[in-house]
UniProtKB/TrEMBL annotation:
Heterotrimer of A, B and C subunits. HAMAP family: GatA. It is an enzyme of class 6 (ligase). It comes from Microbacterium telephonicum. The keyword DNA damage does not apply. Belongs to the amidase family. GatA subfamily. One of its GO terms (biological process) is translation. Keywords: ATP-binding, Ligase, Nucleotide-binding, Protein biosynthesis, Transferase. GO terms for molecular function: ATP binding; glutaminyl-tRNA synthase (glutamine-hydrolyzing) activity; transferase activity. This is Glutamyl-tRNA(Gln) amidotransferase subunit A. It catalyses: L-glutamyl-tRNA(Gln) + L-glutamine + ATP + H2O = L-glutaminyl-tRNA(Gln) + L-glutamate + ADP + phosphate + H(+). The gene is gatA. Its EC number is 6.3.5.7.
Length: 503
């Protein structure tokens, strides 16, 4: 395996700036890696045919003495939920097969402007509906730790690309855990920013009050560096915050080198019993907490009594918003059209949506439409929004007592492909610890915390902070990452037995 693709984004950026590596070399190395392993992993739906041209332009600008961003020349994978002008944007659905957007998503445009090199578009559950990337219309992505297992979802393609060393960085989206849960099962880092902290303009909408774009990486610092590029106010996004954000990279560097954990109050939720989690997940979580406590952190038991209703509320709010957002795919304006000879517009629309949407999308659209229908709105959607408010109040109460909240990032390690595909409820329960973060609009980060004893697969620990305190998560995440790396003696991905590891 090329030494270049084993570098973190920060280390690669330093070598690029020093002239030790060219962007052309770095980009070619990652394209070669994709060619070598993606037939097995299937992380990418489309590989860019302009990446080397973009890399050559960065090298030319650097040679001319132009001032460039810190990540200039570093390759980037892009989740297919984000529209791009030079590659198809399908959101993992047949209904958008081959669709070319007339504009770039804001986060893509900002990445290009900062000199990052988009390598391609990554696979995902159709319209981000799923926890395993098995609901992609273009076939499942496989976990680089074990090709018979799922890479998480909906952003399994981005996580798998980073874990398999096909890209040092990726863009993802997180509606109920779609960045953090894949990070948990692939041994990567996934950050869900504060709602409104990163523009959603150009992200194909699933549930507009829940969706959030964020970074995927192999280290906390790498995520922070990418977050610095894509974050900030965007006038094209009506939900975008106007805050001036601190440097997240500076926060991560402070966490890795300072005494951040001393005196830190870490909340552990009383209502998340061990009985609901795989033994290895619980053991890894407790071990990480013990490591933090040994460095001076204070572990505080807190109560969040309404968290147990989060999954139920989420699976009313999300389908309701999805049924509205997906109404635009009507065969008239863009995307797939199935002709019905002699049929009406309604006939064509029905035939197109039947052929273009997969089973999971149809299931959620039907559920959401029902929840919004006359006579049921208050009983279902209205009640779910009330539960959402109660969960937000639980967070407010908790953060009056603690600095961050810690949970396992997901209840189990990566399950086998096909194991839960026919059991939607079990699939939905996989997001039990991540969903409340989206319902409340607060930031959450998942970092690797070890390997589960029973199957040797990666496990993540999630940290949650109050809204707008994303920098706090980077400080804490980097501090814990550094401590665990000292314990392991090598990065967790170096232990991967198949495609992900460096061995």
């Amino acid at each position: 395996m090329s030494e270049i693709i084993r570098l973190s984004a920060a280390d690669l950026a330093a070598k690029l700036a020093a002239g030790e590596v060219s962007s052309m070399e770095a980009t070619q190395a990652h394209l070669d890696r994709i060619a070598a392993v993606d037939g097995d992993v299937h992380a990418f739906l489309h590989v860019s045919d302009t990446a080397l041209q973009a890399a050559a332009d960065i090298d030319r600008r650097r040679a001319a003495g132009e001032s460039l961003g810190e990540l200039a020349g570093v390759p980037l994978a892009v989740k297919d939920v984000l529209v791009t002008t030079d590659m198809p944007s399908t959101s993992g659905s047949k209904i958008l097969e081959g669709y070319m957007s007339p504009y770039d998503a804001t986060v893509v445009a900002r990445s290009r402007a900062a000199g990052l090199i988009p390598l391609g578009k990554t696979n995902m559950d159709e319209f981000a509906m799923g926890s395993s990337t098995e609901h992609s219309a273009y076939g499942p992505t496989r976990n680089p730790w074990d090709l018979d297992r799922i890479p998480g979802g909906s952003g399994g393609g981005s996580a798998a690309a980073v874990a398999a060393f096909e890209a040092p960085l990726a863009l993802g989206s997180d509606t109920g855990g779609s960045i953090r849960q894949p990070a948990h099962v692939t041994g990567t880092v996934g950050m869900k920013p504060t709602y409104g902290g990163v523009s959603r303009y150009g992200a194909i909408a699933l549930a507009s009050s829940l969706d959030q774009v964020g970074p995927v990486s192999r280290t906390v610092l790498d995520s922070a560096l990418l977050h610095d590029v894509i974050g900030g106010h965007d006038p094209n996004d009506a939900t975008s915050l106007t805050d001036r954000w601190p440097s997240f990279a500076a926060a991560a560097r402070e966490g890795a080198s300072g005494q951040v954990l001393k005196g830190l109050k870490v909340g552990v939720i009383r209502e998340l019993p061990d009985s609901g989690f795989q033994a290895g997940v619980s053991a890894s979580f407790r071990a990480a907490l013990a490591t933090m406590e040994a460095q001076g952190a204070e572990i505080v038991e807190i109560s969040a009594p309404h968290f147990e209703y989060g999954v139920a509320a989420y699976y009313l709010i999300l389908p309701a918003e999805a049924s509205s957002n997906l109404a635009k795919f009507d065969s008239v304006r863009f995307g797939l059209r199935v002709d019905v000879p002699g049929g009406t517009v309604e006939d064509v629309m029905a035939a197109t949506r039947d052929a273009g949407f997969g089973d999971e999308v149809k299931r959620r659209v039907i559920l959401g439409t029902y929840a919004l229908s006359a006579g049921y709105y208050d009983a279902y959607y209205g009640s779910a929004q009330k539960v959402r408010t109660l969960i937000q109040r639980d967070f407010d109460t908790a953060f009056a007592q603690v600095d961050v909240i810690a949970t396992p990032s997901a209840p189990t390690t990566a399950f086998r492909l096909g194991e839960k595909i026919d059991d939607p409820l079990q699939m939905y329960l996989n997001d039990v610890t991540t969903i409340p973060v989206n319902l409340a609009g607060v930031p959450g980060i998942s970092i690797p915390s070890g390997l589960a004893a029973e199957d040797g697969l990666p496990v993540g620990i999630q940290f949650i902070a109050p809204a707008r305190e994303d920098a706090r998560l980077y400080r804490v995440g980097a501090a814990v990452e550094a401590l665990l790396l000292d314990e392991w003696g090598e990065p967790l991905l170096a232990k991967a037995p198949v495609l992900g590891g460096a061995r």
